[in-house]
Amino acid sequence: PLLNTAVDADDGNPLLRDHARKALKAWQDRIESMITEGIRSGEIRRGADTRRAANLIIASLEGALMIARLERGDQALRDAVAHLHGYIETELRSQKRK
Predict the structure, then answer these.
(1) 44 φ, ψ (degrees, to nearest 5)
(2) Which whole number is the average pLDDT over 29-45?
(3) Which of 71, 97, 67, 70 is nearest to 81 (CA)?
(4) Relative to the CA of 10, which of 37, 44, 57, 93 has its CA 20 to 30 Å away?
């Protein structure tokens, strides 16, 4: 949904682009907040790059959704979920919580 809006807005509709940018920022902030809370609780390793993780999660999900729509199937979404699960377990999860 965000990808569609961003592409539609591109340079031709600054108001729509601004709305899409704000939606992206809100999504990034929400994921970063969740990761920060995970750091505080000891579930996520200290020093995790919250913005990088948020961008990777969003990009993976948005890209997988685009592929799924074009292929009219859910394999790309399944692949993205599996990849993100591995990423969270190996790159973000605190060693103490494994």
Answers:
(1) -110, 140
(2) 97
(3) 67
(4) 57
What's residue 9's pLDDT?
A: 75
Q: What is the mean pLDDT of residues 47-57?
A: 98
**What is the Cα–Cα distance from 13 to 44, expressed in whole angstroms?**
39
Distance of CA 59 to the CA centre of its chain: 5
Evaluate whether 20 touches 6 at the Cβ level (below 8 Å): yes
Q: How far is CA 14 from CA 7, 23, 25, 86, in A?
A: 12, 14, 16, 37
Helix (H, G, I), strand (E, B) or coil at 12: coil
Q: To which residue do tokens 């399944």 refer?
A: 78
81-84: long-range pairs with CB below 8 Å, 24+: 84/56, 84/57, 84/60
What is the reported pTM?
0.88
